[in-house]
Amino acid sequence: MKKITQLLLILPFLLFSCSSDDDSSENNETNPEAKPEFAMTATINGKEFKANNPYGTNLYSSTNIWSYYPKEDFVMLQGRQGGVFGDPEINIWLKRTDIKVGTYKFTIDEESPATHAIDLTDNSNEEFEETKEGSITITEVNTKTKVVKGKFNFTTYPGYDEVNKINFTITNGTFNYQYEDIK
Q: Measured between alpha carbons, how far is 75 from 63 in angstroms, rounded to an integer?
């Protein structure tokens, strides 16, 4: 009777302490392709910005309202803090032919950019923010998983507003997005 009692007491420990044969050392390591908590981060005029696309993921945007960034030529990475109705928003357009490691500088908004572009939309004010200058650095491109990672910084100026003149400085920007569907 003692042996049966002891076996019954020990049995749960044996069952719950054994590891599965399905586990491999890969599953216990950090997955470098794991989706980030935030697909885009930055500091905007000293305030923290953490965002995903409007639907809470790190997937590129399948829409684009600007005709000078046609979808066949550009991939839009949209970072909107707070989800579908969130604010502010940073949009990055990567020229498909230039999705490769490197630093790309840009100046005042162009209607036909030679390479990548970026802008800020802040609906908490009545100003129209226009990009003045900055850079996008692509640090990693994984053509198998279609993930692009990088850094950015830029400044804006008030486009049409001559009264309120709020300039924005965006620093320490990072992005980690899937730039197209995996086929």
A: 9
pLDDT of residue 160: 66
Enumerate the β-bridge partners of residue 76: 61, 93
pLDDT, one tens digit per residue, over 109-150 is 556 677 898 888 888 777 778 888 999 999 999 999 999 999
Task: Give 28-63 pLDDT, tens digit per residue.
Answer: 234 445 678 999 999 999 999 999 999 899 999 887
Q: What angle do CA 122, 71, 108 make, to 5 degrees?
A: 45
Give the predicted TM-score (pTM) of the model: 0.75
Looking from the CA of 29 toward its CB, the CA atoms found within 13 Å total 6
DSSP secondary structure letters along 130-162: EEEEEEEEEEEEETTTTEEEEEEEEEEEESS-S
Question: How far is residue 82's CA from residue 88's CA, in Å, rounded to a whole number?
Answer: 8
Q: Compute CA 107 distance to the chain's CA centroid, rounded to the nearest angstrom.
A: 22
Show the tokens assigned to 111: 């209607």
**Distance in angstroms (rounded) separating the CA atoms of residues 178 and 147:** 4
